Amino acid sequence: MIQQFSVGPIGENVYIAEKQNQALAVFDPGADAALLLPLIRQAFQRSQAPYVLLVCTHGHLDHTGALPELLPALRSEKIPCKLCVHQADAAYFGEASVATNEKLFASIRATGFFNSFMVTIPEPDFYLTDGQILPDTDILSLHTPGHTPGSCCFLLENGSTLISGDTLFNSGRGRTDGFDADEDSILRSIRQKLCILPENTRVLPGHGPETSIRKEKHYYL
Hints:
Layout: E1 2-7, E2 12-17, E3 24-27, H1 33-47, E4 52-55, H2 61-64, H3 67-76, E5 81-86, H4 97-107, H5 111-117, E6 126-128, E7 140-143, E8 152-156, E9 161-165, E10 168-169, E11 172-173, H6 183-194, E12 202-205, E13 211-212, H7 213-217
Parallel strand pairs: 3-4, 4-5, 5-6, 9-12
Antiparallel strand pairs: 1-2, 2-3, 7-8, 8-9, 10-11, 12-13
Helix pairs in contact: 1-3, 4-5
């Protein structure tokens, strides 16, 4: 089961994916920790998960901003949790996170957003690799650089559903005007990693409504 919630000022999509007796996967907790905490708690208890896996499709602040509040809140309730992201986005976490996000928002001329939501993002517990099955789940990680160097997408539900982060949207793709983004890379990622998926694959993006590979692939091939 996958639940979707829109959070924050620019409508970032958080997904909670639960499967009985597997780690509970929470994708991109970008804002509104007080809203997400009881939802995660309920899903954790319902699914009898061994722990909560907080998965970031990439390091941008609108996808990670709830972590400084959410992680200690979960741990205070004795809910074990682990945080992960691709290593190529490591600079968006830990001590470097504020400076990296400041550089990003300056490069896209959105410093006002940064100033309103500046937080230090916690260090990951481990880093993702391309083709990795996330621990204690059946979720497959796909490294899809372009929007950021470490952007990833994730295949769930026996490969029938793709959580695409900011790589692929409904009738669009992630912006590439950030200081560490690359247009050629995101196009290559979409063509080589996503367009080869079955056309009926459901796509759940980081912003906006869901779509499908069938609907999106004609823009890229």
